[in-house]
Hints:
Blueprint (H helix, E strand, L loop, with lengths): L2 H19 L3 H7 L4 H8 L1 H19 L3 H20 L4 H28 L4 H20 L2 H4 L6 H4 L1 H17 L18 H7 L4 H32 L6 H48 L4 H7 L3 H19 L5 H30 L1 E4 L2 E4 L1 H22 L14
Antiparallel strand pairs: 1-2
Amino acid sequence: xxxxxxxxxxxxxxxxxxxxxxxxxxxxxxxxxxxxxxxxxxxxxxxxxxxxxxxxxxxxxxxxxxxxxxxxxxxxxxxxxxxxxxxxxxxxxxxxxxxxxxxxxxxxxxxxxxxxxxxxxxxxxxxxxxxxxxxxxxxxxxxxxxxxxxxxxxxxxxxxxxxxxxxxxxxxxxxxxxxxxxxxxxxxxxxxxxxxxxxxxxxxxxxxxxxxxxxxxxxxxxxxxxxxxxxxxxxxxxxxxxxxxxxxxxxxxxxxxxxxxxxxxxxxxxxxxxxxxxxxxxxxxxxxxxxxxxxxxxxxxxxxxxxxxxxxxxxxxxxxxxxxxxxxxxxxxxxxxxxxxxxxxxxxxxxxxxxxxxxxxxxxxxxxxxxxxxxxxxxxxxxxxxxxxxxxxxxxxxxxxxxxxxx
Length: 407
């Protein structure tokens, strides 16, 4: 198997672990009777993991440990944590298991990117196609739940989301040992021994700082989608509980196409325009959610915008980081942006959107009803603000992929 195919399969398994549980996590916690503050605390676990990851795990992977071995150990242990979490119905044991899983899994997302970049001859051209493997994995792992879950799935069935994720995690742990050897990158005499500190210094570059702020805003919107979408589809739109994950996976189907063309798009229209299109995808999707909730075909079709939202923004950010940061701090630089994408953005979304849903819920004769129109206009407005920031203030020295920048 060629290097690109091996990296592709790595991404398939890496994102399948995440995709197995993500769409159902918040509805499942609701089934267990967890209060909104408890759900928010669980949701903040990835923020804690991303923060600690940049200072410890990614630093360790950058300077001291072969990346593929780091991946193998992390996925073996995180799989065990997922199995533990699956069989906990009380809040504190559940939270402890999920937090341990997060601490072990989240750093591997940036390390997997670094493995891919380190073993691709032309990362800007090829990374989109490799990362498309993650899209395939996320989409494929949703299909078993058509059979594992019923239309009105009970908690005993829904906990299978963690069991399936654990099985994939164990497979990835074994597969990681077959990946191309990716040794630690050691800087020269003058290099800062703390890779994360050197990565933070790049924030003094104005266009990197602007991208950092916009990434935070867009990550809140992106994570908010996973907080709200499954409940919206099942409770407001009327899609069966065992089909909602399949409907959500249509976004990954579109992502396959956008990932495949991403390299060419970056070369033709450049960093700024590609990022703006990605953020506009979020605005359009939430606007449709707000104004067309009674049209099932429209709601299903708009899931296809997820491909633009992810590939044209987040995958572009990862490629930009690889192009902009020095080689010996790239895992930490990926971790720096993962701190926003998976960490701070996840924490803010986990507190903000459950709080808004509670505020916008009213009691009716038919049961609690959420004012989804007002709810979805919040992320729509946030996305438009992010677009303005990019359009006015993001000015990288090169229009498209080029050489690294210095602080």
